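MOLECULE: protein
FOLLOWS: sequence and fold
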Amino acid sequence: MKKLILLLTILSFHLPLAMAQPSKQELADMEQRLTRMERLMNSQVLVDMQLRLEQMQQELQSLRGEVEQLNYQLQESRQHQRDLYQDIDRRLLLLERGGVGNGDASQQAADASSEESEVLPSLDEQKDYQQGINLLKEFRYAQAAKAFDAYLNKYPQGRYAPIARYWLADSYYSDRKYKPAIEQYQLLLKEYSDSPKAPQALLKVGYSQAELKQWAEARKTMEQVIASYPKTTEADLATRYLQRLKQQGH
């Protein structure tokens, strides 16, 4: 019995040592297996990376297409706005000069020629005014405001003064400078109350007051638009804006 115990004790010490020391062949086999596993893992990583790269390239192409489409739409919108500024400017000039009636065309031409010969602005005045218009059409609002302000200081009674006053206010408004915008719109309403742009000027006074969170003043202005210019687009817009202010708790 003692011999059996001694034998088991000796085996308990030597068996782990034998198991802990694999043969060279076993080590070589293990190395080969590890190498194959590493290759497989690297290969899978490369495949995943390639798939991810292709996916990113597709997403990039899609984004480029969307950007190109947005750029095209932006250019169209800007061109439309430039054309709109030019058309509005032309119509305002016609209205300021008395408009075009339904009489004889030759008589209208003669009257227009006679009127223009009396009030046609100088080339310098036309150039100074046009500078502001060009800047406005290029959406350079701060520069446009400076140009219109310079025009009004130089030609306070100029032929384009009423329209320049409106464009000055609109330049401030488009540049989110609402306080000076309000001042200029109100000057237009005070000095040229019969201007074709008076309804829109008063409406934008209300918009500007709302942007400045002057809710009571904005509501009062919108009510004034409705009362002063009933059955107009501006009155309709003012009505809708009042409803919106009410819904927002203002």
